[in-house]
Amino acid sequence: MKITRIDLTPVAFADPPLLNSAGVHEPWALRTIVEVHTDEGISGLGETYGDLAHIERLKTVVPSLIGLDVFALGLMHKRVGESLGGQTGEDTHGLTGQFSAPGTVDRVYSPFEVACLDIQGRAIGRPVVDLLGGKVRETVPYSAYLFYKWAGHPGAPDDQWGEAIDPAGVVAQARQLIDEYGFKSIKLKGGVFPPEQEIEAIKALREAFPDTPLRLDPNAAWTPATGIKVAKQLDGIVEYLEDPSPEIEGMAEVAASAPMPLATNMCVVSFEHLAPSVKVNAVQVILSDHHYWGGLRRSAHLAMICRTFGIGLSMHSNSHLGISLAAMTHLAAATPNLTYACDTHYPWNAADDVVAPGALSFVDGSLAVPPGPGLGVELDRDVLARLAENYRNCGITKRNDTGYMQKFDPSYEMRRPRW
Ligand SMILES: O=C([O-])[C@@H](O)[C@@H](O)[C@H](O)[C@@H](O)C(=O)[O-]
Ligand SMILES: [Mg+2]
Q1: Could you tell which of 318, 345, 404 is best to mutate to test the pocket of ligand 1, judged by most ligand atoms within 8 Å of the CB?
Q2: Which atom of ligand 1 lies nearest, measured to the CA of 316?
Q3: Angle at 195 between CA 192 and CA 201, to 5 degrees
Q4: Per-residue confidence in pLDDT tens, the chain, 419 aa
Q5: Is the CB of 265 under 6 A from ligand 1?
Q6: Annotated catalytic residue 316
Q7: Ligand 1 center to residue 65 CA distance, Å?
Q8: Ligand number nearest to the C-alpha of 240
Q9: 415: which residues sit within 8 A by CB, 6+ positions away?
Q10: Which of 52, 84, 316, 326 minimizes the number of CB atoms within 10 Å of its CB?
């Protein structure tokens, strides 16, 4: 079954003003929708980042994939690597760690692999989860992903979630997300306010939700000394602390005295980071993400490595749409040692989904693998056309949380660590 054509459609969808250690989300988030077509008339879907430099890299590799068999995934990975010729991408906001040449290959390859697995599944009438070894769980739990946020984008009306800049606002946001989706664990994106304020917010969440597992993620905003202090204050309150401090060395320093496991989606983001991290026990949980770990099969390999070294496994997310959510759910359903609820930004962006409704609905904070062959999701072509038009008109070509923050506060600087 040969690849005959690949369509790349950059899209932009509404994103609320979510705060993080790099600044604040712009009104539009970007993704690229990937459609792979074959000579047998079966097509498959993938979803990836929408920054211009990434789109350019996707375009660079497309010609080398035309004519490939959709089952030849090893060869596909090799061709992506050859076409990129050692290029290394750049993480402009710094929220997902350092890029490397092999990591860039994995990032570019991922949406094509997912689309080919979608095609394989459709061809044999089986869901993608079956191509990954089959379901080890019927449903995949996701966590409520809380953000400090402004009431609305400056100059625009307040959004449906309102302001969350203090413990009361954070608790109210958690209630809103839990009432709507039924989530059974909570993650707070931190690194926005001094750590004492974020500890207070976590304690307020603990009081409001006494039995719900909690996590805090400041995206490396703290020095190791601050990380150690915060870790001690959150002893017994969070199930893990995510990326308190920058780099493998900083995380190892915090880990040596933190009473809870440390998790990362910043210092171990590619296979070559695993050995140095294991050597100094920098992290005890890895947040996998098929968008940069090289697709679903390589993420399954990562899971096996984590199991081998006794490292826990959770799942990371950026702003995304339903194709990504479906792929994450197939992967998580097939991964025995994915023992924490997965992150997802989906609630913040669900209103603009390119996936036709029905396939992805949360029950008690969890998703069942969409029924139907392949990924089990279909594109809504009208929405795709609308989001593609948004992309052409929005004027944004790369995520820039810091630059957007500086529009409102020219003195703002991105500093990591900050406290
Ligand atoms: O979207 C954000 O603001 C997040 O901070 C995201 O970019 C991070 O990559 C991610 O959610 C994380 O867990 O670090
Ligand atoms: Mg994180």
Answers
A1: 318
A2: 13
A3: 80
A4: 999 999 999 999 999 999 999 999 999 999 999 999 999 999 999 999 999 999 999 999 999 999 999 999 999 999 999 999 998 887 777 787 778 899 999 999 999 999 999 999 999 999 999 999 999 999 999 999 999 999 999 999 999 999 999 999 999 999 999 999 999 999 999 999 999 999 999 999 999 999 999 999 999 999 999 999 999 999 999 999 999 999 999 999 999 999 999 999 999 999 999 999 999 999 999 999 999 999 999 999 999 999 999 999 999 999 999 999 999 999 999 999 998 999 999 999 999 999 988 899 999 999 999 989 999 999 999 999 999 999 999 999 999 999 999 999 999 999 999 99
A5: yes
A6: yes
A7: 31
A8: 2
A9: none
A10: 52
**DSSP string of 272-331, one letter each residue:** GGHHHHHHHT--SEEEE-TTTTTHHHHHHHHHHHHHHTT-EEEE---S--HHHHHHHHHH
The DSSP element (H or E) to which 262 belongs, if any, is strand 262-264
Cis? peptide before 417, omega within 30° of 0:
yes
Q: Is the CB of 143 under 6 A from ligand 1?
A: no
C-beta 217 within 6 A of ligand 1 = yes
Determine which one of 77, 187, 316, 330 is catalytic. 316
Which residues have C-beta within 8 Å of that of residue 283, sequence separation ≥ 6? 251, 255, 261, 262, 263, 264, 267, 268, 277, 311
Q: Which numbered ligand comes closest to the C-alpha of 404?
A: 1
Catalytic entry in 37, 54, 189, 291: 189
Residues 6 or more apart whose Cβ sits within 8 Å of residue 41: none
Q: How far apart are CA 61 and CA 58, in angstroms?
A: 6
Q: Among 92, 189, 264, 324, which is best to mutate for testing ligand 1, by the most ligand atoms less than 8 A from CB? A: 189
State yes or no: is 153 an active-site residue. Answer: no
Ligand nearest to the CA of 190: 1
Listing DSSP states for 263-277 in one string gives EESSS--SGGGHHHH
User: CA triplet 4, 113, 39: central angle to 5 degrees?
Assistant: 20
Rounded Cα–Cα distance for residues 122 and 375 (Å): 8
Instruction: Indicate if ligand 1 lies below 6 Å from the C-beta of 96.
Output: yes
User: What is the spatial distance between Cα 161 and Cα 144, in angstroms, rounded to a whole number?
Assistant: 13
Domains of the chain: 3-127+381-393 (3.30.390.10), 130-368 (3.20.20.120)
